[in-house]
Amino acid sequence: xxxAYFLFFIxxxxxxxxxEVVCSIQDKETFETKIIAVxxxxxxxxxxxxxxVGKTFLGTPYVxxxxxxxxxxxxxxxxxxxxxxxxxxxxxxxxxxxxxxKTDFISFTKTLExxxxxDGKRNGYASRLHYFSEWIANNEExxxxxxxxxxxxxIEINKTINFMSTHRKLYPFLKDNDTNYNKIxxxxxxxxNEAICILEQDQIKANEHLIKSxxxxxxTTAIKGLDITHTxxxxxxxxxxxxxxxxxxxxxVKISKEPLIDYLKKIKNNTGIMVCRPL
Length: 279
Hints:
Strand content: 15-25%
Number of helices: 10
Radius of gyration: 19 Å
Order of helices and strands: HEHHEHHHEEHHEHEEEEHE
Distance between the termini: 51 Å
Helix content: 25-40%
């Protein structure tokens, strides 16, 4: 009877937990391996911690839309395939665990949830920080990053952000859900009441020396209604130049062969970057 009760208890906890967190056995094992691998990576200069952790993901396949699995919006833990945003989020989460001297899986899930969702509270699809400029602003409010774009030569621009609401058919949990749609519209309204500061593409070279390894780089765009098309992590390479450590849509997590400036010139519609520094 005690054994049966114990098994029922474990099954109940597993079932309840799975409704909140989606994580395969393989991903749980990967977490356990990685938390050991990054032990000792904490540096006084936190940016160095960020890049050291970021490099442990090199070669991980690029896989888009890994979070689009359920309209109830569980917390997705997926280390087998990353897009540019989930890559940055996971690197930051592991780095913060090191900073806070935590090594357990539950602390990781709480940290990732705090990073990924508005005010750290996961409450459905629309609570996710879909627009990366809002991701920066919200995580700055949490004290996790600092938007340094204006400090390194950035200028304020006014741009209407409404890509998701004007292209709702592209988003499975938005196209037929008016509640989500209205909440996304509210996020867009917030962004449209705030000036976006960008370091324009032709000004990056003169200010490159102000960008540090570990800074989070967000690529701004001329695409109508959209703020950011890609993100990654700045890394100072042996050539003395800042490159981009990122989950590349060309296939995997990698370091750009060219310095950031030259890499951006190949990106269609790129207008510049936003830069935030993990704290």
